[in-house]
Specification:
Elements: H1 30-44, H2 53-62, E1 67-70, H3 77-87, E2 92-96, H4 103-107, E3 108-113, E4 118-123, E5 130-134, H5 141-153, E6 155-158, E7 161-164, E8 170-175, H6 188-191, E9 196-198, H7 205-214, H8 220-223, H9 230-241, H10 247-262, E10 266-268, H11 272-288, H12 296-307, E11 312-313, H13 315-319, H14 324-334, H15 342-345
Parallel strand pairs: 1-8, 1-9, 2-5, 5-8
Antiparallel strand pairs: 3-4, 6-7, 10-11
Bound molecules: adenosine-5'-diphosphate (ADP) and magnesium ion (MG).
């Protein structure tokens, strides 16, 4: 039962005719900037503490990546994902990973209808705009890879039929770094599929008290109003893709990523996929700042969340207290920042 993959109904981004550069006119990013500022405010009205967390999450969403959230229970990981989904008026699917979860529990199954004598596809929880995969390291490698296939391809194949996943499509997978017993830690190849990894961390005292105040009488999440919608987010993601990155900025990204491959403290450096994702995420940051071109600053801001989870330290480095994060910081310090020419800011 092979069928052609259904198209999502969303046209590929079109930016002018042949030969025309993707140069947004003045004000082209105004709607994106204004909307994303409102989304950020909405998310931060629910999730307290951790400045910058909402920005990175939204950059990953706009850059069409996926997010790995590593933290202990109860710090607001699920709340963060739900707050983003609600503010962009999108559907959330929730998957609690367990060792006995099967790939079909994620993707869906074909059910035989005795009345019509036909198979009917019942979609699983991946058919959502924002998929929260809780404790991904508790699932078997087979089920993990089913999710990763969805992340990479934006589609899933069940019994030979390919089904397109909705857009926007953001997987927020969580891992508890403390309780590792009986788990299947994500292999490097699979961690590499996540655009960024963040930790939420404990809020500071005043943020935690603010959380108590806000949740004393009501649940802020339940009252969160959408400030935009899915189709707008898809449009913004297209604008982000078309944002200008100069040759100097691209060289900077590649220089930074390549430096991880030569570092003596690393057993495994970052892949070319990391370069791609770093540039895409940097474009999203630039767009949210209302800039029509990427600056090295955007790249630096994202270097830790985009690169650290892909690096494997040598045993000696780990024992001497080096962390992937400190190593990324060191490389950011060391890699020469290109001096941008005026031409780097605009294509002509
Ligand atoms: N930083 C935070 N901001 C707002 N609420 C939080 C925060 N951390 C925890 N909470 C609250 O604690 C509870 C558990 O949060 P949840 O998102 O389910 O945690 P996790 O998914 O990390 O286990 C929720 O009621 C949530 O509102
Ligand atoms: Mg949770």
């Amino acid at each position: 039962m092979h069928t052609e993959p259904a198209t999502s109904g969303l046209a590929e981004p079109q930016f002018g005719g042949p030969g025309s550069q993707a140069v947004p006119g003045p004000g082209a990013l105004d709607e994106l900037v204004d909307t994303m500022a409102r989304v950020r405010a909405a998310v931060e009205s629910v999730v307290t503490g951790r400045p910058g967390l909402a920005d990175i999450t939204l950059a990953v969403l706009l850059a069409e990546g996926h997010l790995l959230v590593e933290d202990v229970p109860g710090v607001g990981k699920t709340t963060l994902a739900k707050a983003v989904a609600r503010s962009i008026d999108c559907h959330v699917g929730r998957i609690q990973f367990t060792p006995d979860l099967l790939p079909s529990d994620l993707t869906g199954v074909n059910i035989f209808r005795t009345g019509s004598h036909e198979f009917e596809f019942r979609p699983g929880p991946v058919f959502s705009n924002i998929v929260i995969g809780d404790e991904i390291n508790r699932a078997s490698p087979k089920t993990q890879s089913a999710l990763l296939e969805c992340m990479e391809e934006g589609q899933t194949t069940v019994d030979g039929t390919t089904h397109q996943l909705p857009r926007p499509f953001l997987v927020v997978a969580t891992q508890n770094p403390v309780e590792m017993e009986g788990t299947y830690p994500l292999p490097e190849a699979q961690r590499d599929r996540f655009m960024a990894r963040v930790t939420v961390g404990y809020p500071d005292t005043s943020a935690e008290i603010l959380m108590l105040d806000r949740q004393e009488a009501t649940t802020p999440l339940a009252h969160l109003q959408a400030v935009t919608d899915g189709p707008s987010m898809v449009r913004f993601a297209q604008q982000v893709r078309a944002l200008y990155a100069s040759p100097s900025v691209k060289r900077y990204v590649v220089g930074l990523v390549a430096a991880t491959r030569e570092h003596p403290s690393l057993r495994l450096g970052a892949s070319p996929r990391a370069s791609l994702q770093l540039l895409r995420a940097a474009k999203a940051m630039a767009a949210m700042a209302g800039r029509d071109h990427v600056l090295p600053d955007d790249v630096q801001r994202l270097a830790r969340p985009v690169l650290a989870h892909r690096l494997i330290l040598t045993t000696e480095a780990r024992l001497s207290g080096v962390t992937p994060e400190s190593l990324v910081d060191e490389l950011v310090q060391r890699t020469p920042v290109p001096a941008l020419e005026p031409a780097d800011r605009r294509p002509f």
